[in-house]
Write a structure and sequence with these properties.
- This protein has nine helices and eight strands.
- It is of the alpha/beta class.
- The longest helix is centred in the N-terminal third of the chain and has 17 residues, at about 65-80.
Length: about 300
């Protein structure tokens, strides 16, 4: 299960829907239209002796970069060569608009950009809009519960070649900065830490200039469920840096998938320091109305 390559071509215009059946931008915020994406899930595991694994990356993805996508590939290699897991799928789960973070484009745009990115660069990654379209901020633990419910309760796990079904382990995929926040007293509740690291576990990709040894030491009770992945080729691209480049009208080519760059330009995203408005918010602003002010949640997004 490998990607089909990172080569992309810039389309003349970014389509409103894709071959993977993702909803048009105008529909992505409607919970009544939601259905769990499963078109790229493996239906049968290759090795019944291994534990099926589902990787979930939660975050802002404002915008999505090649590093976000590369993290899944690094994790896939790590899992293949160092664990007794077998990956059955991978999901990007963008945070909702209720997470009032500087530079956060609207959920409808972030869902679409993530969808374009995986559609153009991968044959196994998917975007689940469930978290993004919620009116209230959803803690990471709740998001992982959502995936566990959809995969293991609704679908009954995954089938083996013998016809039996096995439960799937859901795990959080994140950067090293997540582990640092988890080890900082008062940032995460003990209940959520135990739920995320104890029940699910996490795969952490090391980041340039980030020392996580002390953080890992403080998370000793869950050490068996924390897998640290080394970056053999260092990459410190971040969405923050991409937004800064775009504001300064600098090139982000080869840092972000080309169709995503095209989408950003088409919709005028990241042209100033504030969070990019949705189409609906821009209409409100043009009428002298302000988007609702919702306080940012205390829990950081991985």
């Amino acid at each position: 299960m490998r990607t089909s390559g990172l080569e992309t071509s810039v389309p003349e215009s970014v389509p409103e829907s894709h071959s993977d059946g993702q909803a048009p931008v105008s529909d992505v915020n409607d919970l009544s239209n939601y259905s769990f994406p499963q078109h790229r899930l493996k239906t049968v595991v290759n090795d019944s002796s291994k534990t099926p694994l589902l990787l979930v990356a939660c975050g802002s993805f404002s915008p999505i970069t090649y590093l976000h996508l590369r993290m899944f590939e690094m994790a896939a290699d790590y899992v293949r060569f160092n664990t007794e897991f077998e990956i059955i799928g991978g999901y990007l789960s963008p945070v909702s608009d209720a997470y009032k973070k500087a530079g956060l484009a609207s959920a409808e745009h972030r869902i679409r950009m993530c969808g374009i990115a995986v559609d153009q660069t991968s044959d196994w990654l998917m975007v689940d809009p469930w978290e993004a379209i919620q009116k209230e901020y959803q803690p990471t633990a709740v998001v992982l519960d959502h995936f566990d419910h959809e995969i293991n309760t609704v679908r009954g796990g995954v089938e083996t070649y013998t016809g039996e079904r096995k439960a799937v382990r859901v795990a959080l995929l994140a950067g090293a900065d997540l582990i640092q926040t988890m080890s900082t007293p008062g940032v995460w509740s003990d209940k959520d830490l135990d739920h995320i690291l104890g029940r699910y576990g996490t795969f952490i990709v090391e980041r340039t200039g980030t020392d996580i040894d002390d953080a890992l030491a403080s998370l000793e009770p869950w050490k068996d469920n924390i897998h640290v992945i080394q970056q053999l080729i260092q990459n410190d691209v971040s969405s923050t840096k991409i937004r800064l480049f775009l504001k300064r009208e600098m090139s982000v080519q080869y840092l972000v998938p080309a169709p995503v760059i095209e989408y950003i330009h088409q919709h005028g995203l990241y042209e100033d320091d504030g969070a990019a408005s949705s189409v609906h918010e821009r209409e409100k602003e043009s009428k002298g109305q302000s988007p609702a002010n919702t306080p940012a949640p205390e829990e950081p997004v991985g």
